[in-house]
Amino acid sequence: MRLRKSRSLKWILTRRLIGLQACLLLFFFTLLAGWVWIIDPELEDTNESIIRVLAKHVERKADGTLNVIETPEIAELARQYPDLWFIVRDGGNNLYQHGVFPTKLLTEPFPMSIEGATLKGGPSAHAAVGNRDTPIGRLQFIASTDRIGGKSQDVNIWISLDIDIPESGGNAEIFWLSVVPATGAILAILVVPILLVTGAATAIVTPYSIGRSLTGLVDTANQAKAIEFETRSAHLDVSKFPSEIIPLVDAFNHTLSKLDHGYQQHSRFLADAAHELRTPIAIVRTRADLLPESADSRQLRQDIDRLSRVAHQLLDMQAIGAGSQTAQMIDLNQLVGRIAADLAPQVIDAGYDFFFEPAPAEALFMIYPSTVELAVSNLIRNAVDHSGYKGTIAITVDARGFIDVSDEGPGIPPAERVRVLEPFYRLNTHSSGAGLGLNLAHKAAELHFGRLLFADTDDGFRVRLEIGALGTGR
């Protein structure tokens, strides 16, 4: 199964913010386009648009006169603008006229050289003048949707002429489709730099801001990594977290509390059970000693001894994990020497030669004395139980913090050297042990930040209890 690559939260948020900005910009342009489509703005004057339509439908009759073809588009203009009027003139002064308009526009024609003009007949009424290229040549158009005057000569018309002459001399007409690209270019010139600046600011400032906001998360992650078995009751500080992450930290702290409570219950049960077993075991042992000597009575006493040893080891396990011990600066030579002296009679009675070699110099370490004593005692008893009751068992102390227990037995197969550290696991099911000795020694090594190591030797097998730095160290 392919593992999913972890993603950075700050870059996820940064990409989403940039994407949100892009979506908002797209939404803005969509609304703008929809608004333009709905209102259909006319970027040219109404009269100018009429001139453009007329230029597409003008024709010349056989007699040379001008005519405007009656198309649905022309009919729609007449319906939409009841006061519509227009005049079409060619270079030969041929005319086509429609509607009511000032007669002066017929008697005083505008020069064809005027490309575009506006005739004003009052505050709001006006007409447009423009020249257009048509299929029948260049024509002059005058058109308006306003009633400026009638055919009577008595109507006074005030005419104002505005002439726009482009510098290039080209066509000055403005159409909707030609203005849209220019408008889009103007918007792009205004909006794109803003988008680039905001995008760059988002890409630079957002990761920094989010990183600053998550500083507390990094510190707390380091705090969580520092939680050990002995400090399992510790809680993470929520004061540095954003409010959105506090529920997750609270849930983690709650889980730690439940684990600690469960472990304490388990330890109390283990200690109570082992303690309650000691009295009945002692009574049974006393009664077994009163039995006549026989093979069955000897076997019964061995079974009782094994049961008693399991009860003591369970108490030892509870003592190691209780965390109520006090570390002391102890010379390993003196501690291990005392253990060796106490166990020497049992080792010799089992048929072994017993040897203890202290370190040449003091081996002072900050340790939990009772825990190290339990570990070394269990290693010696394991060597007694699994070395065939012959040969030599040697205890050696090294000033570097190594306590070696060597024997001339078969040792532990390499494939089993991990499993033997599990509680109640036994290589030999017929052994009198309960499978807790090596587990106790392993826990003692971990408690002192050390290791329990196995190694084959020329004469047999060696188990090394390595003491690490505890508290102020050595």
Automatic annotation (TrEMBL):
SUPFAM superfamilies: ATPase domain of HSP90 chaperone/DNA topoisomerase II/histidine kinase (SSF55874), Homodimeric domain of signal transducing histidine kinase (SSF47384). It is an enzyme of class 2 (transferase). The chain crosses the membrane at residues 174-205. It catalyses: ATP + protein L-histidine = ADP + protein N-phospho-L-histidine. One of its GO terms (molecular function) is phosphorelay sensor kinase activity. It is a multi-pass membrane protein. It comes from Rhizobium pisi. It is found in: Membrane. Keywords: Kinase, Membrane, Phosphoprotein, Transferase, Transmembrane, Transmembrane helix, Two-component regulatory system. Its main location: membrane. Pfam families: HATPase_c, HisKA. The keyword Membrane applies. Residues 272-471 form the Histidine kinase domain. CDD domains: HATPase, HisKA. This is histidine kinase. InterPro entries: HATPase_C_sf, HATPase_dom, His_kinase_dom, HisK_dim/P_dom, HisK_dim/P_sf, Sig_transdc_His_kin-like_C, TCS_sensor_his_kinase.
